[in-house]
Design goal:
The complex is a heterodimer of chains A (about 270) and B (about 250). With about 270 residues, chain A is mainly β. Chain A is built from one helix and 18 strands.
């Protein structure tokens, strides 16, 4: 750290602020991006990650782990209690060099639902940097026999922009493991005819107790004035999430709620 | 400080800027069959999050710099944008992937290290090198362009204020009196980019693909940083050694 401080120049007339030092024109890659594990309490398993230096200079790498999401019931199980990183935690990689990082995951006996952690690779060139790039890949460990996969669509909305119909779905995970739903939103006119199918792609995970927004849009359909029904259908593993609501397209093209547009909807 | 975390509120007022996935972009496909065995490790590697480079560039001439600095600040002053910006070249195609930025001013490699009361002041921002219980708040803005960025109070609700997001610190806890929330990994408020695009404004849904700019490649974006000098003293030095840019797949 001392060499970092030495780079500072102290001025007397104005406050001096230094945020970052050095530059990093190199790339590190880590695979796989996500590891999903299912273990019975007390059981353990070995896994590994591969880190590669894709650049033309040597990089220094520091490996660490951290909690990413902690279920209330698992507060006593920090990442260090179930995820062990083998081998050296600091090493250098030559250009083009790859290295396997061994992991051992042990499921605590009293854990519930799932444990979510990250293995992080902080890296820099030969000179330390104050702006530090980090790559973190996720480790999900489901505690076999305790998992409860459930959720609900808490909100469903639609709006029109100049170029597209946009829909949003609020999903809340009500179990003790995350959801990663995908599916579609259908729009039916007053005659129950399907006028639009909007795909909802898999996105960020909705962690237990939290709500996550999922979005989609249709740039090709023009809704004429009238009454419509919006139907969301999402799936994650065996869990199906559905909700419908009605809306009205006014003569000027505005989308109006059919009391209410947002919030509890007919299901 | 934070915008509401309710997605729908922002959606209704601002909508979304959706990226239409290009055919070449790998979209994560979950391993279809539900796992029934008790000890199974499934590796999910489709898609990627890569930071090709992180460069510090001078705003005035785009020359490569060694540090982000603020020069010529005369007190009293409020929000001032740094002389340099961070040019980030990144690719994100992994579902659930993104890049988050924060300070980590209580970490082992933090020098100076924040020593104040975290229940009264968040450690986020630039630490006073003389009195490490004090700090200056900072904010970030990501854009697909370079050149001069206008400073703004992120809370002012006027002009370009909505483009700036307060920096959070990894160790910060909720301080209701400051409207500061506890640091949450992967939260939109700390996420600069995700598969949809760049986080161009404060709203949690305001991610979108940028308008093409011939001055930058499609994977390059500029992160500007501003600091609030309202409580600054002189002569003093304020700094952080732990400005993190973290690519993640969750």
């Amino acid at each position: 750290m001392a060499n970092k401080l030495n780079r500072m120049v102290i001025l007397s007339s104005v406050p001096l602020v230094i945020l970052g030092a050095m530059t990093c024109a190199f790339a590190l890659s880590v695979a796989p991006g996500r590891t999903e594990i299912r273990l019975a309490p007390g059981q353990n398993i070995k896994a590994s990650l591969t880190v590669a230096n894709d650049a033309k200079e040597i990089v220094q790498v520091e490996v660490s782990s951290k909690d990413w999401f902690v279920l209330e019931e698992n507060k006593s199980f920090t990442v260090n209690s179930w995820l062990e990183i083998g081998g050296a935690h600091q090493f250098s990689l030559k250009p083009g060099e790859r290295r396997e990082v061994a992991l051992r995951v042990t499921c605590p006996k009293n854990a519930q639902g799932e444990l979510v952690g990250m293995v992080s690779f902080l890296y820099h060139a030969s000179e330390p940097s104050m702006v530090t790039p980090v790559i973190s890949v996720s480790i999900y460990t489901v505690v076999a026999g305790t998992e409860k996969i459930s959720g609900e669509i808490s909100e469903l909305g639609i709006r029109s922009s100049q170029s597209a119909i946009q829909v949003a779905i609020g999903v809340k995970a009500t179990g003790n493991v995350h959801l990663r739903p995908a599916g579609q939103v259908l729009i039916f006119n007053e005659k129950k005819e399907l006028v639009s199918t909007i795909p909802i792609r898999e996105g960020d995970p909705a962690y237990p107790g939290r709500e996550r927004g999922y979005f989609g849009q249709d740039s090709s359909t023009k809704l004429v004035p009238g009454r419509y029904t919006l139907a969301a259908n999402l799936v994650y593993r065996d869990v199906k999430l559905s909700k419908t609501t009605d809306f009205v397209v006014a003569k000027d093209g505005r989308i109006e709620a059919d009391k209410p547009l947002i919030g509890p909807a007919k299901s | 400080m934070k915008e509401t975390r309710k997605y729908m509120a922002t959606f209704l007022t601002a909508g979304i800027a959706m990226a239409v996935a290009a055919p070449g972009h790998a979209v994560f496909q979950s391993q279809g069959t539900p796992v029934t065995k008790t000890a199974v490790a499934t590796l999910v590697g489709t898609g990627l999050v890569t930071m090709n480079s992180v460069l510090i560039k001078k705003v005035s001439d785009n020359s490569t710099q060694s540090q982000l600095t603020w020069t010529g600040v005369t007190l009293p002053a409020s929000w001032v944008v740094a002389d340099s910006y961070i040019l980030l070249d990144a690719v994100i195609t992994a579902s659930g992937g993104g890049i988050q930025t924060y300070t980590d001013n209580t970490a082992g490699d933090a020098s100076p290290k924040f020593t104040g009361d975290k229940t009264q002041v968040t450690p986020a921002g630039l630490i006073d090198n003389t009195d490490t219980t004090k700090k200056l708040p900072t904010a970030w803005n990501i854009r697909h362009s370079t050149g001069i960025a206008n400073s703004a109070n992120p809370n002012a609700n006027v002009g370009e204020s909505s483009l700036w997001l307060y920096y959070e610190d990894k160790a910060q806890v909720a301080i209701p009196s400051l409207s500061a929330g506890a640091f949450t990994n992967g939260d939109p408020f700390v996420t600069t980019e995700n598969t949809t695009g760049i986080h161009f404004a404060q709203g949690p849904t305001q991610f979108g693909p940028p308008i093409p700019n011939p001055a930058l490649t499609g994977t390059q974006n500029a992160i500007y940083v501003e600091a609030d000098f309202t409580t600054a003293l002189t002569p003093r030095t304020y700094s952080t050694t732990t400005l993190r840019l973290e690519a993640f797949t969750q």
